[in-house]
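I have been asked to look over a protein record a colleague put together. The record follows directly below this note.
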Amino acid sequence: MVMQHQQHQHRSHIPEKLRNTLSRLHQIINQKKILRGSLVYMKNTCGKKNCKCYRGEPHLSLYIRKSQNGKPKMKLVPKTKWDEVKEMNRRYKEILTLLNEISDHEWEHIKD
């Protein structure tokens, strides 16, 4: 009981906005699927003479791009995974935003 009371007291000293930010960060991390990178749409042609791309309507492809050890990497995302990859990437970007909010809060509360 004492431990619960101490935890409750400790939490009450955290401003509500920061508590909400920490809670949201925890929720996203628990979903486990996150993906760092930039989404890049490219138009390309396959070269088949009976294809629409041959007549000027190129195929739309989605790639995920990131830098790893200073080297750029790109991967083609299969159309069946577009929605999943976009959602994982959105979560990653939201995590960055939340981490910046937490850092900004701590920055403002550094004592001289």
